[in-house]
Each structure stands twice: as C-alpha cells, then as structure tokens.
Inverse folding.
C-alpha cells in the first residue's frame, strides 16, 4: 500500500492506481476507505468500468443494498456505453443476485 500511495503522489488522478489502492484498502479490512476511493474515482471518471463491480460488492458486504444497486445500475450503463460485454455480464449477474436476495 505504501508504494501505491507514493505512486499516487506523483500521479494522483491515475485511475488504475486509485482502483488498486481501493482493492488494497478492502483487502486490509478498511472497506469504508475502499468505498470512498471508488466513489471518488467513479464520480470523476464514470467510464472506468472495472471499479463498479468492486464498489457495489463492497457495499453489499456492508449490507447497503440500495446503494449497491444504484452503483450496479450505473456500472451497467457505463459497460454498455463502453461496449464491454464481459463487464456488463458480470455486473448484471451480481445485480440480479442482489435483487433476488
């Protein structure tokens, strides 16, 4: 995580580094920090499709179903716009699972 933070000081808007930092926060058990990083990232760069699945999943883990559904829906729209069928399918499956729970 220290290396990521150092890289981010040099490139604070790099979406890959920000996404990686969020994953590290989540892995370390700091889900709220991960969510904050992902939300900031997606609010600034809504076309960064890969982050939606992880953000919504983190919200599901915190039992924040409505927020998770909203982010899944935004991710589905972003994946469709990008023509990323793989991401769309993953997001749709997760969305449907959450709706059925």
């Amino acid at each position: 995580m220290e290396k990521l933070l150092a890289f981010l000081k040099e490139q604070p808007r790099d979406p890959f580094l920000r996404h990686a930092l969020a994953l590290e926060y989540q892995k370390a058990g700091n889900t709220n920090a991960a969510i904050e990083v992902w939300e900031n990232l997606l609010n600034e760069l809504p076309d960064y499709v890969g982050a939606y699945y992880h953000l919504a999943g983190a919200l599901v883990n915190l039992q924040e179903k409505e927020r998770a559904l909203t982010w899944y829906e935004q991710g589905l729209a972003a994946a469709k716009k990008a023509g990323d069928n793989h991401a769309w399918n993953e997001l749709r499956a997760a969305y449907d699972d959450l709706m059925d729970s």
About this structure: The two ends are 34 Å apart (CA to CA). The domain at 2-100 is CATH 1.25.40.10 (Serine Threonine Protein Phosphatase 5, Tetratricopeptide repeat).
